[in-house]
Amino acid sequence: MEDTFIGDDTTLLESASQPGEKPSVKTVNNGKVLKPRNENIKRHRLILSEYRRKIRDEEKDIRELKQAIKIIEEKKLEHLMSLIEKWREVSQKTLSYMQYSTVLKIDKMGGFKKYMERELENKLLEIEDEYTRFEEEMGSFLESDEFERLSEEQQEEYKDQINSRRYDLEKLKLQKAKEIEKEYENVDDVFTLQELTKLLKIDYKLIFPH
Question: Using CA of residue 73, residue 75, residue 78, residue 79, what is the dihedral sign?
Fold first, then answer.
């Protein structure tokens, strides 16, 4: 079979090897024979297959990384829970000791109920003391030379402000007294761990979750 150029260098005529066969034509670009279409498709498929393999490898690495992170987080959580349990154990023992020592002191005072009654009285006295201090301070101001030097109009204005403040404090005093009395009502004569954490302003369920 012989190859014969026809016209310019863009077409190459391939002679038939057998009588009666049609010669085939190969396209030439700048003297180079173009690859057949099937070879290009095959090459693209190989490239696509390689990309898919790389994607699968990347996905595998991501899965393994996520699994590793999950294991680390679980171990951290286990360690944290272990620390919490140790803290609770120490806190429970400490509170139990405090409860025991406090009960001994309270019993000498006549029992827990008597102790709470005294606490109620003390808190009510604190509220009364706040109101008394205000009255004393305002009384001293009204008798001061500074107040005397004010004009009658200014004096009346100050008196109105003091009376308004006195009214607000009186309302606040009654409100606090009711809240405290409600807090101390229905108190048993047993000093429990719940009562201890309440006095210490600690969340009981945080230390005794069950």
Answer: negative
Q: In this structure, is residue 74 part of a structural domain?
A: no
Pairing of strands 32-33, 24-29: antiparallel
For residue 136, what are the domain limits? 112-188
Q: Using an 8 Å Cβ cutoff, are 15 and 21 in contact?
A: no
For 11, the 3-state DSSP assignment is strand
Count other C-beta atoms under 10 Å from residue 88's C-beta.
14
The number of domains in the chain is 1
Rounded to an integer, what is the distance from CA 54 to the centroid of its chain?
39
In a domain, 177, yes or no: yes
Convert 15-26 to b/e letters by CB count within 10 Å (16 or more is b): eeeeeeeeeeee
Phi, psi of 3, rounded to the nearest 5 degrees: -100, 135
* pTM tops 0.70, yes or no: no
Give residue 142's pLDDT: 87
State both tokens at 147: 């107040």
d(CA 80, CA 87): 11
Strand intervals (E) in the chain: 3-5, 11-14, 24-29, 32-33
Check pLDDT > 60 for residue 61.
Answer: yes
